[in-house]
Amino acid sequence: MDDAGRSDQGGLHTSHRGITALLAWYGSNKRDLPWRLTRDPYAIWVSEAMLQQTQVATVLPYYLRWMARFPTVCSLAGADEQEALALWQGLGYYRRCRMLLSGARYVALHGLPGSALEWERVPGVGRYTACAISSIALGERVPVVDGNVERVFARLTGCFDLKPVLNKKAWEWAASLVPADRPGDFNQALMELGATVCRPLNPDCSLCQVSSYCKAYEVGRVAELPVRSPSPQTVPLSYHVWIPVCDGLYGVRQIPEGEWWENMWEFPRAVLESDLKEIVGEGEVLACGGLRHSVTHHRITLTVSRIQCVVKSSDLKWVTEEELLQLPMPSPQRKALALVRKAAGSLFAGI
Q1: How confident is the model over 329-339, as pLDDT tens digits?
Q2: Residue 134 CB neighbour total at 10 angstroms
Q3: Are the C-beta atoms of 138 and 111 separated by less than 8 Å?
Q4: What is the pTM of this model?
Q5: Which of 131, 162, 175, 301 has a Cα at 20 to 30 A from 39?
Q6: What CATH number did the domain enclosing 286 receive?
Q7: How do 235-246 and 317-319 pair as beta strands?
Q8: Which tens digits make up the pLDDT trace of 175-207?
């Protein structure tokens, strides 16, 4: 193993028995997941979109609700963006939802792609998703590399490279291994191994069916791989959030394009409370507490208040409790509402 960043094509390349062992392990140990019970490209596409940067346990209920409401690509293509966002809310990374909707409209017009290259022409579908769909649903012999596969590759071959070199080598490595007869199973087996056994922390090498082919395991350096890239500097941000109430209605506004969660709905938010007064107007303000959340490397603090408005500001959309529940709102906004509900008691019962 070369600490300078070079690795040979070791690992599973040392024996086809390693690939056979991996596939056998996957057949006996794969998790029972709904998207593994179908070869419908659309269903697999939805799962891959939801699983990006999100754990399986979190995705499962969202996937089931989504497929119940939008069982086909055409049913999604005809959906309103607000409805799709409302169904997605709480899952995060809302750009994925918008791109899935945009892609569905493209496919409804042009038909389902028949290869990974064709899938990459669909808006929002990158190389990873295209190859995942094509190998699993269509049986195309193409590799799939996500973070799990990168980690398995780095450890099996003893690769100390950083991204993007690591990613490039992992794609080349995976492409050279994919069997023609079971490409989808092989790709899923590698990802499953990384997700459940070859984990980032505390990997269970004793259960790994290919540990005998692993260079990092051989020399006791599994925990060192893959080498982590330097973390970006944390950026702190602070906002005031007011939840306006007037005549039993709640004031919200649509988030402008170009901001996080664009086109979803939020309660008025600003760095300075004086700016909120210009938006909301006069009223009795009740401080309700604060909360924190993260977006990428940003650490955001929200100071939350309820304001009983004298008049309804024309800068806001005023909705009933029932309408509020139907609007797509980011998770931090729902949490802000929960703080107000706790402070105000029965006034917000039912939200």
Answers
A1: 999 999 999 99
A2: 27
A3: no
A4: 0.88
A5: 175
A6: 3.90.79.10
A7: unpaired
A8: 999 999 999 999 999 999 999 999 999 999 999
